[in-house]
Amino acid sequence: MALAPAWISVPRALSILYHAPSGCFQPELRPICGTGTTTAVSVPGRRRRRRLAVVTAASAASPASARGKGVEFIEEMRVAAMRLHTREQARDGKKEAPMEPPVAKWQPTVEGYLRFLVDSKLVFDTLDDIVHRATVPWYAEFQNTGLERSEPLQKDLAWFSLQGYAIPEPSAPGITYASYLEELSDKDPQAFLCHFYNVHFAHTAGGRIIGEKVAEKIHIHRELEFYQWEGDLSLLQQNVRGKLNQVASGWSRAEKDTCLDEMEKAFASSIDLRRHMFP
């Protein structure tokens, strides 16, 4: 399996993460906590650094100014995510308190981590099923993107089982979220796409760092398949970004706003899955 190159320098990222609330990791962005401005963690290559500067500038715009002003829709989604942070975490943060405690204060157990993995698998299974049924025609655009995590999670759970751990059944957070996604995919496709974006892209960013830190705390000396992708992850992401922009180009302004307004629910639902690992 060819592993995707890391987006960020892991030692630097973990240093930031250890002192920062886990909520300061949002889809596709680097940590933005600390000084109230975005923090660009080292990324190899001049071209990548230049791209980071563009992303940071777009993300710093206010949500109101970004909507309908010629900004690509994927950038509008990032700006909507910025609002879910506190002022201490990001200059344009709107939250009075972080949505979850700092990862450094988590007290995870293997059992809690397994519940998180099982619930995550149910959510990824549900997303895969929805896009493959494609009851909304443009859902088919998001089939076989390379970001799917169901099969890797199945392999990880099988590995834990071989180590003697009991694999739990899905619990309330996963069941509730999966049911919500099913309902939303039928009645509000634009809002559903917000969840599709958040679940996949948040996992490729802060989710990977959280996974490494939790594994360290519970002494799991193995890189899980959950945090590995076949091929170049940046290219897989670029492909999905292009599809998101293409699909959204046919939406009205009201439909785009429906998607953006769903971001807080998407964040909260993902945090509910991680509560198994909170202190």
Automatic annotation (TrEMBL):
InterPro entries: Haem_Oase, Haem_Oase-like, Haem_Oase-like_multi-hlx, Haem_Oase_decyc_pln. SUPFAM superfamilies: Heme oxygenase-like. Its main location: plastid. It comes from the Eukaryota. Its EC number is 1.14.14.18. The keyword ATP-binding does not apply. CDD domains: HemeO (cd19165). Pfam families: Heme_oxygenase. One of its GO terms (molecular function) is metal ion binding. Keywords: Chloroplast, Heme, Iron, Metal-binding, Oxidoreductase, Photosynthesis, Plastid, Transit peptide. It is found in: Plastid, Chloroplast. One of its GO terms (biological process) is phytochromobilin biosynthetic process. One of its GO terms (cellular component) is chloroplast. PANTHER family: HEME OXYGENASE 1, CHLOROPLASTIC-RELATED (PTHR35703), IG-LIKE DOMAIN-CONTAINING PROTEIN (PTHR35703:SF3). Belongs to the heme oxygenase family. This is heme oxygenase (biliverdin-producing). It comes from Paspalum notatum var. saurae. The lineage of its organism: Eukaryota, Viridiplantae, Streptophyta, Embryophyta, Tracheophyta.
